[in-house]
């Protein structure tokens, strides 16, 4: 990396020896954290990398841990994000990469993804957030691969009005409501995902999607359920208890 730049949003940045930095930050160039940070982070430009190098981003229960609005070609990796409203908040942000982040114990969503397209989410662990692990609205063409979405208070993965996303080899288990939920979403592909020990494994209220080689068992209500849907394709899935699945 070529160094790091911190731009102060609200308060003077305080360096606490042995503990971490404090304050709200805008990141405007390639940055690698060398200690934990207490406060929100905003990605302030395109074409940069934020590598937290395994350090924690701690919040006070409000705002987003890391925010991207109108950003592209950004990579965020190796961040542990705890105790915000949302772990990540994305809006109108395309062609970014999020990899190997831990997002836990946030008051709303792990990832709140709005109107953001063609992003990659790889090997993130999203757990014990109060609402959804991944919550997507009006977001298309994203790739989710090898994420673990566990023990969230509502859904592991929720899609609303989202098209042409690909979910491959994700685990969405032990969530309070649905492992994977689709509403008004079309032409999405789900392949080799696992959704066990939720209330419902797959809750499908959408049409023209493809489900292949997924596994859903031991969910308390049903392992896969389709409602108000048409022309979904199911190939070689293992759904132990099904409702309206051909």
| Mean pLDDT over the full residue set | 93
Radius of gyration: 18 Å
Main sheet strand line-up: 1-4-7-10-13-16-19-22-25-27-30-33
Number of helices: 0
The number of distinct β-strands equals 33
Shape: globular
Low-pLDDT runs? 1-17
What can be said about the biggest beta sheet?
12 strands, mixed
Strand content: over 45%
Report helical residue fraction: under 10%
Compile the SSE list and pairings.
Blueprint: E1 6-8, E2 14-16, E3 20-22, E4 25-27, E5 31-32, E6 36-38, E7 41-43, E8 49-51, E9 56-58, E10 64-69, E11 75-77, E12 80-82, E13 86-91, E14 97-99, E15 102-104, E16 111-114, E17 120-122, E18 125-127, E19 134-137, E20 143-145, E21 148-150, E22 157-160, E23 166-168, E24 171-173, E25 178-183, E26 189-191, E27 200-205, E28 210-212, E29 215-216, E30 222-226, E31 233-235, E32 238-239, E33 242-243
Parallel strand pairs: 3-6, 4-7, 5-8, 6-9, 7-10, 8-11, 9-12, 10-13, 11-14, 12-15, 13-16, 14-17, 15-18, 16-19, 17-20, 18-21, 19-22, 20-23, 21-24, 22-25, 23-26, 25-27, 26-28, 27-30, 28-31, 29-32, 30-33
Antiparallel strand pairs: 1-4, 2-3
